[in-house]
Amino acid sequence: MLADMDIEIYELLEKAFDEFKGALVVDRNSRIVLLTRGYAEILGVDRKEAIGKPVTEVIPHSRMSEVLKSGEPEIAQVWEVKGETAIISRVPIKRGEEVIGVVAFSVFRGMDEVRDFLGRLRYLDAELNYYRSEVEKLRGARFSLENILGISPAINRVKEQLACIAKNDSTLLLTGETGTGKELFAHALHLSSKRRFGHLIKVNCAAIPDELLESELFGYEEGAFTGARKGGKPGKFELANRGTLFLDEIGEMPARLQAKLLRVLQDGEIERIGGTEPLQVDVRIVAATNKNLAELVRHRQFREDLYYRLNVIELHIPPLRERMEDIPCLVVHFIRELNHRLGVKVKGITPEVEEVFQSYHWPGNVRELYNVLERTMNVIQRDVIGLADINWFLPRVLSSSGRQTSRSSNTLRNLEAKIIHRVLESCNGNKSRAAEILGIHRSTIYNKLKRNNG
Question: What's the gap between Cα 124 and its chain centre?
């Protein structure tokens, strides 16, 4: 019975598994050749009597024979016998390709140990997630797809497209009006891509003077110019190596640098100012603009060849007026964020304020909505934002109401009247003062009220 395996091996196995609650070994004929004390106690059998018996005589529903036949291990299986539950692994013992036995064992002495182990795993998983988020912060990206809020079909469609685009390395051009959140989408793309463990480096091409932008992007060697740092300085392309470079306001890039950027996109090479050797860089480019680059190309203000290199994939971020159903959830999120930032306790907005927000065309988009709430919450003295708290904003809404096309004229007239009445109340009925606050002529107030009452 023991011809296929050395007696010494069994003795070593017995000593090794003696500390475990359950361990046994069967030979090629499914006969028990090793049984630990703990295992025997669970089964309620005498160890000496069990040795040499077919395993199914001692354990009627044993799966040891199945593992002998398949030669495949069964890891961490739940096993119950006589009211005891254990996590058992069954592993074939092989000599070459031949299965000559099976060892079954549990690394836990009982389910309490299993629960303790799972608790430690959950703690380690939480700790790992914490450190992963900290690393991501250090690497420059702070917002994931989950941070892009909204329930509208328009925003969900863009999020779905972004998730697909993140799977590849193609250059991406983000387009959209000012304040739509293009940088937020660049962050989300980076964190959804295989480059998420690299850096996300951001450059605003409109914010850096032309004479400094080249050194910021491409770096410089020591002595390249007066005032150059000793040892030189790496540029943004080098810092973004194996990561993502976000070029915001790309339409503002000077023509001279457009040519250098084109070379990077074509050859994957940069050259520091004052350098003599090209440097290979592995960078994904994400560019963003609120301008019509095709129009700039037609007016020779942007290189056509660079435009086509950047516009491999274009993702248009919709303006807020095309996703008005997202305003309520954005307001809730911004109020929560501003409460924390400003140390206030605003609970929300009144239905009248929500109606105003839904009727406004938001030329500054999500950023304008945030700014309106921030300004209001800086001076509010109550816990709910009402019309009286946004008096300063109402003239802006009133002056834009004539440009609305998405709501009925009756709804807009009612809103105008409501705003005028609200301002008149705050001025104790003084129409001249109300006209001054609203930025309209006094006669306009009479005409709008007359039309609404008529």
Answer: 21
